[in-house]
Structures are given as structure tokens and as C-alpha cells.
Amino acid sequence: MVAVILATFSTVSADPDSLQDICVADLASPVKVNGFACKTNVTADDFFFAGLANAGATNNTVGSIVTAANVQRIPGLNTLGISLGRIDYAPFGLNPPHVHPRATEAVFVLEGELDVGFITTANILYSKTIKKGEVFVFPKGLVHFQKNNRNSTASVIVAFNSQLAGTQSIATTLFGAAPPVPDNVLSKAFQIDVEDVVKIKSKFAPKI
Fold it and tell me: What does the UniProt entry say about where the protein is found (predicted)?
């Protein structure tokens, strides 16, 4: 019996299977479940999104921008267990270390060349340089990053085995939380002075 239970849990690798052909998300519904409630006035536009066709603006502090094509942009993805996205990078831009708690991610390079990597729970870094037409995979829940290593723009398409993968950027999560993580916690964790913690927090302060 124990073996059967363990085998059952080991096969769960994505969002649960849906119980109907479609369940287009009613994003305005006050009902919140593991996913979104289904709406009845479905149209073809619920399964359409044109937002990945063009590059996003990368004029920010890290030099990258993510355009998500998840259930919040494509309501028809509700219960289907997949989503996409596009990431654009300025020259030498960075998609900072982050995790997706609900999905494995596959990256396909459209243009440019990137240094990519992920870190296991044993603190082992697996990294590689990837270029146009190549694919790299980041396992679910592990810290990973992408860095444009050239003085030219780059872009990728990303795929997730979740309708809403979720993203936690490590630096923003720790130094930009509201209410804030106590200074002495971060000081001890990173082995830096409290004054340095305060300085870093000022760069990640939540925008009002």
C-alpha cells in the first residue's frame, strides 16, 4: 500500500488534469480555487494572445523584461497545465536569480547568446552558454538565472508545465518584502552589517 501511495505521488509533475474539455478562466470571479472558476461566455479570443510577437522594453535596472503568456493573459489556459513567456535582454542584461515554485521551465533561444544556470539543493551549479536555436531546462523550484553575455540584444521563448508558474526573485523577495524581513535576519543570513542591509533594502523598496 505504501509503495502504491509513493508511486502515485511520484507521477505528479504538473498541474492536475482537467475534468472537462475547457474551463476558460473567469478572472473577475470572487470564487478562488486551485485555478480559476469557469466562465460561460467563451469566445475564440479566450485562447489567443499576440503579446509575444514583439520585444519588450529592457530599460530597467537589470536589463531584461518578461512578457508572460499565462492564464492571466490567456484565460483558455485554465486547467490545461501549460503556459509560455518571452524574455528580452538588453546588452549584458540579466534575468536575476529566481525560482518558479509550480513549474519546470524550458528556454528556447530566439536571438543572441546567454549564460544560463541553475543550482540544486545540494548547492551544485549546472551552467552552460546557449545560443540561437538551443534549449536549456530549469527543474521545478530550483534557483536559476540567465545573463546576456554579449553587447547586443537577446531574446528567448520560455515554456512551463503550469498555467501559472509563479516567480520569486530572490533579491526582491528578501529585500523588498512588505512587511519587511527583519534587518537582523538578513544581516546574519548574508553575513553583512545591518547598515548594508538597509542600503540594499532601499534599492528594493516596494513602490507605493
Answer: Secreted, Extracellular space, Apoplast
Q: What domains appear along the chain, each with residue ranges and CATH number?
A: 13-171 (2.60.120.10), 176-203 (no CATH)
Is the preceding peptide bond at 179 cis, omega within 30 degrees of 0?
A: yes
Torsion sign (Cα): 130, 132, 135, 140: positive
Cell of 198: 538597509
Query: Does the annotation flag 98 for ligand binding?
Result: yes
Amino acid identity for residue 91 in this structure: P
Q: Which residues contact 58 (CB under 8 A, 6 or more apart)?
A: 64, 65, 88, 89, 90, 93, 153
How far apart, in whole angstroms, are the C-alpha atoms of residue 153 and residue 89? 6
Q: Which residues pair with 118 in a beta bridge?
A: 126, 144
Q: pLDDT tens-digit profile of 135-149?
A: 999 999 999 999 999
60 is in an annotated binding site: no
Is 100 labeled as ligand-binding?
A: yes
Q: Which amino acid is at 22?
A: I
The answer to whether 67 touches 56, Cβ cutoff 8 Å, is yes
Helix (H) or strand (E) run with residue 202 in it: helix 194-203
Q: How far apart are CA 123 and CA 125, in angstroms?
A: 6
Is 78 annotated in a binding site? The answer is: no
Other C-beta atoms closer than 10 Å to the C-beta of 22 total: 15
Length of the chain: 208
**Full-model pTM:** 0.88
Give the three-class secondary structure for 26. coil
